[in-house]
Amino acid sequence: MSLEKIKPIYDVVVIGSGPGGLGAAIAAKKNGADDVLIIERDYELGGILVQCIHNGFGVEIFKEDLPGPLYAHRFIQEANSLGVEVLSDTMVLDINPLRRITAVGKRSGFLEIEARAIVLAMGCRERTRAQIRIPGTRPAGVYTAGTAQRFVNVEGYMPGNRFVILGSGDIGMIMARRLTLEGAKVERVLEIMPFLTGLTRNYVQCLLDYNIPLELRHTVSRIIGNYRVEAVEAVEVDENWNPIPGTEEIIPCDTLLLSVGLIPENELSKKAGVVLDPLTGGPVVDESMQTSVPGIFAAGNVVHVYDLVDWVTEAGFIAGKSAAKFAINLKKGISRKVKLEAGTNVRYIVPQFIMSDSLAESDQRIQFRVIRPVEEKVWVEVTDGEHLITRKMERYVRPGEIVTLNIPQKAYDDVQKAEKLVVRVTKG
Question: Could you give the domains of the chain?
Answer without folding.
Answer: 3-125+263-332 (3.50.50.60), 128-260 (3.50.50.60), 340-427 (2.60.40)
